[in-house]
Amino acid sequence: SKATVSVLYWCNMPKGRTREAPESRGEWGELPRSSTTFEKYYNEVYQDKEELGKMVEALQRDLPTTFRVIKEGNERWEEVLHGLERAVAGMGEEVPEAKRPERLPWYPGGCLCWSVKMTKKEMSKEYPSARRFYDLLVKETDRGAIVRQEAVSMIPPLFLDVQTSTSVLDMCAAPGSKTTQLMEMLYGGQGHVVANDADIKRCDVLVKRVQRLPGSMNMSCVVTNHDASKFPKTQLFDRVLADVVCSGDGTLRKNPTLWTKWKPTLGMSQHLLQISILKRGMDLLKPGGRLVYSTCSFNPIENEAVIAHCINTSPCDWEILHLPDKLPLLQRSPGITSWKVPLPDMSSSYSTFADIPRETQLKYGSLKASMFPPERMAKGCDLTHTMRFRPEAMDTGGFFVAVLHRKSETGKEEEACDESVASNVGFTMSKVGTEEQKVLAASFKARESFPTDLCYQRVIDGAGGRSKRVFMVSPEVASVLHASPSLRVVSAGLRVAEKVNSSTYRPTQTAADILSQHVPMEEVPMSVFIELLSSRTQPWTATLPGLLAAAADSMTYLIAANKASHQITAACKKSGSTIQLWGDAIEADRLRVALGIEHSETPVMKPPKVPRTE
After folding, report:
1. To the nearest 5 percent, what fractions of the chain are helix, strand and coil?
2. pLDDT at 562 exceeding the cut of 50
3. What is the pLDDT of residue 597?
4. C-alpha span between 202 and 196 (Å, rounded)
5. Taking all residues of the chain, what is their mean pLDDT, rounded to a whole number?
6. What is the mean pLDDT of residues 281-298?
7. Model confidence over 178-231: pLDDT tens digits?
8. pTM, whole model, 2 decimals?
9. Of these residues, 172, 203, 296, 572, which one is catalytic?
């Protein structure tokens, strides 16, 4: 009815996150956009000097900002797209046609991926009519409806051919943009993704990126902290993504500071690690499975050379897939089969390792035979079937992608895995105990359908101490946690509750959608919220929990009480003298439709003064 509003609707308000705009290329001032060392090195490597000149010229231009609209699990995706289209249509004549936002036609869905050639400064200040588009980007990024990601970075997951029931390993996942693509592909099915990174700080960034997605997606994701080249072999995967560490010279448009730091040894120093990671990924792939190897580098030492060495030394049969019909609008170049390897001081270059004098080999120990073009390739493995994405082709960064298919097993016994390579104390997840499951269900007044057997807690020490937080995982992730006790688990599933005391658990706002399926949801009179918005006697942070607690006796209301007060307070502070219902025009419009309230009926009130807190 018009007089009531569901608390669950309140729970789905945007989370109280730090406001940050989608990343942009920034203003780099007088930073150099060229390097004689870079050009000299690749003049020795590449035979086609004309193509090299076009590539270097493209690298000196600014990189457009690109982003994706999340569709799966996001009921507002069409609303977001329409908002973007209206913002573009409303841009005035001061915005040059060449700088107007446009869709990337090669991305699946046609309208989900966008490119923007304006800088942050141009959108927010120099072109007033573009401000609406910029504000929408900021707002929807905060909500998790938009993910900022470089265009070529979106390519590797698209070639994995992920189905909803697929098990996926993302070996070098941070900062997480490709992981979010994989989670979207798995949405609504019985698949799962294990997202791994060797750097624990980058794992934290990965977790935050993943948690921006709709809550139900998080249930199918596990974040781990392992050296990718030594990832525990506790299960085999249907798909493996090896987006390996590299020299990164394909990102020069995005990171101009790399021009001054670039040197020939950058790629050489990563070569052996890249081989180790790819070999481990190949060991972890099921027969009949698919592996995608990728780098943001132009260097064949990091690309074709790694693929050739790993396939030629593998005990299994492999095929480099040729997929010209996949994403036909995506412009690509074939991999190369011939290149030279310059010495680190670039005094000379060689086509084969045998051509290097013995004393020179001893002097430069970083030179390896595996860096050179292979004398032969296994049957069905043509290096020209790998793909190079050049910056001048589609106005992007540079990228390399190879799609490998594992054809069969061989009689040779595979290498055993040493699972004791790293301690996992403080990095394990264990199922909530039987008695605690009863306490959890009782705290929520949950129905019998509540899956307490899928609830896990972190074991925080060697003595079996448990964290207060409870996470709900999918059945597939539960199987992974049960079968892989050696995994260093940073995060798994969706945080659904936190322990208050020995007899009470408090639900979380992020789990509102999931909990609503198993927990009775009651309605709160609209007058309660109007009273809150017009309150003058108490700080809102104190008023809101009290009002909700008085409205009805249900733990569900704590979902709103924990977070919403801070969101409304922040909205009031930013709004100035007046604030509309909920302090958010988009949310207000949706709420009006849900309640059947005309626009003119929306109360406009001055925000209460909130005491400053230390």
Report:
1. 40, 15, 45
2. no
3. 40
4. 10
5. 80
6. 97
7. 999 999 999 989 999 999 999 999 999 999 999 888 878 899 999 999 999 999
8. 0.81
9. 296
Rounded CA separation 174/245 (Å): 11
Residues 408-441 pLDDT 10s: 765 444 544 444 455 676 688 999 999 999 999 8
pLDDT at 385 over 50: yes
Q: What is the pLDDT of residues 502-520, one digit of tens each?
A: 888 888 767 777 887 887 7
Instruction: Find out whether the peptide bond into 175 is cis, omega within 30 degrees of 0.
Output: yes
Q: Can you list the positions of beta strands (E) in 161-249?
A: 167-170, 192-196, 221-224, 237-243
Asked whether the CA dihedral 265, 270, 271, 272 is positive or negative, the reply is positive
CB-based contact 175:148 (threshold 8 Å): no
Report angle CA 413, 416, 417 to the nearest 5 degrees: 150
Burial 146-160 (b: 16+ CB within 10 A, else e): bbbbbbbbbbbbbbb
Name the percent of the chain lying above pLDDT 90.
Answer: 57
Q: How far apart are CA 352 and CA 367, in angstroms?
A: 11
The contacts of residue 374 (CB under 8 Å, 6+ apart) are 305, 308, 309, 312, 383
The separation between the first and the last C-alpha atoms of the chain, rounded to the nearest angstrom, is 42
Rounded Cα distance between 461 and 273, Å, is 32
The question of whether 296 is a catalytic residue gets the answer yes
Q: Which residues pair with 293 in a beta bridge?
A: 242, 402
C-alpha to C-alpha distance for 290 and 282, rounded to whole angstroms: 9
Q: Structure tokens of 607?
A: 């925000």
- The residue among 163, 156, 196, 184 whose CA lies nearest residue 68 is 184
Tell me how far the alpha carbon of residue 187 is from its chain's centroid.
Answer: 15
* Residue 236, SS3 per DSSP: coil
| Torsion angle of the four alpha carbons 444, 449, 450, 455, in this order, in degrees rounded to the nearest 10 | 160
